[in-house]
Amino acid sequence: MVRIVRFQRPFAGRGPWAARAGRCRRARVLREHAFFWGGFGGITPHSSTPAPTLVGPAGGLQFDLVWDPSVADAPKGFQQAIVNAALSYTKLFSDDIVIKIRVGYGEVAGSKLDAGALGESESNYMLVSYATVAGALAGDNYPLTLARNEPTTAQIYVTNAEAKVLGLIPGDATGVDGWIGLSTSKSISYALGSTGSGKYDAVAIAEHEISEVMGRVGMEGAIVKGHPTYSVLDLFNFSSPGALELSAKGGYFSIDNGATSLGNFNNAASNGGDIGDWSSNSPPPTHNYDAFDAFTYAGYHGVVMPRDVIETAVLGYNLTPTGVASV
Q: Which candidate among 33, 120, 183, 278 keeps its CA 20 to 30 Å from the CA of 26?
């Protein structure tokens, strides 16, 4: 069993949080920067760095994939696997925004991936009030269902990409929204639709990472800048009907105030891994596994499942006809 990813949470800090911007970093100190123009300045392209790739239709969801210099050393098929992962979301969601992601091979944002991780993500983010998020989702297909313990006075973590889809910043803001990186130390298959024996699925790993940049992350009370912090996804994580989980101990995904479970979240407090991933402590019964699982196994093919599409939609993304048909 191998951990698919590790989402890098913001480190705790001090100071006012309303409408503040920052970045999930691996460094011990969180460095502030202007939200719209922030980017990782420590990566300098060289002549062999691949040119950026724009994925998706004009007027719809697009990804601006900016390849780090490390990608020049990636195996054949690496770039196409990342492009295929991004394409899967452009077919499912219709929002007229551009999500800019820097892509690394063996590193994320210039730092080496953690040992044992198949991939990792980091994101620029902002902290807003609960009322701001509730207002942004009020006219959405999946508005908040108002559990009895809604964290109405807490700050809400929103990735840069999710802030675009919620209308909190311009959809064409040009700063880097997030970073993803895939492992160089694991045996990975870059083929589309199949995974060889003993290998891990690169497209599924990239789908997992990209979805975190899009906002599929759990915070569940983590202290950021001196305050308990939650994410939009946390507001759909229930412990029982009418009651949110509000902890790292698992819970289940629901869009009807906890009446119906669409999947169990990873108990990160016991298992490690990410709070926002699905529970997955044993091999799947079929050849396929859910691309949003917390852990995976060699030789299995990852798939974005119907519940994954719904889970992304509750973050504020609008479905295309293909997306509607998939759920």
A: 278
